[in-house]
Amino acid sequence: xxxxxxAVVTGSTSGIGLGIAKALAQAGANVTINGFGDKAxxxxxxxxxxxxxxxxxxxSAADMTKPAEIADMxxxxxxxxxxxxxxxxxxxxxxxxxxxxxxxxxxxxIIAINLSAAFHAIRAAVPGxxxxxxxxxxxxxxxxxxxxxxxxxxxVTAKHGLTGLTxxxxxxxxTFGVTANCISPGYVWTPLVEKQIPDTxxxxxxxxxxxxxxxxxxxxxxxxxxxxEHVASLALYLxxxxxxxxTGATLTFPRSALKPV
Length: 261
Hints:
This protein is an alpha/beta fold. It contains eight helices and seven strands, in the order E-H-E-H-E-H-E-H-E-H-E-H-H-H-E. The chain has a seven-stranded parallel beta sheet, with helices on both faces. The chain is globular.
């Protein structure tokens, strides 16, 4: 389906990002993965994409807090593969704390990685997409792009910002064959979610099991975590010709519409 296309997926050395990269590679796209982690493990994932799916895969160590490195990542991918047809903004971090105790440096870091990085990547990738009259911009925004939770001021702010950015970009690119959409799942069982459980236990005076059942899954009607494969499948669909008229959308699942998460 995507043979001959090239994708950049930020925050893709593990979790949702890696799942999306694998789905795109399986569909025939060359991919650039990005993120931090053990160098040997990252190389194993990169090489595994090539071996498993018969595509070309590259790795960028670009720091998502540094605009120049983000722009260079896009430029390098264009030189390596001839284009960046698909951009998936997935990089994200989390911190849980009451607003009066929220560290300023954590606020700045979360806004930079979760929100500003998407702007910088889109800004760099759009000229090529417009010139080719084809492109897919997908942003992992989370249910927190539509509803809030206590103790997550920076994360909720960033995710709300992503929906506004996506809608604006969708309008600007609507006549160029380029779509921009947000995927906003409820809680997906990933290392990012698992790592926030201790902070949430402290902030809410709960046990780990209470956090899972009464906080993480409370607003999800299925009472189950979304899987990485669910998110990756939706991302793949948004890259298809069948989704050519879907743009500016925030696609969320599964959650109760009015409950905080």
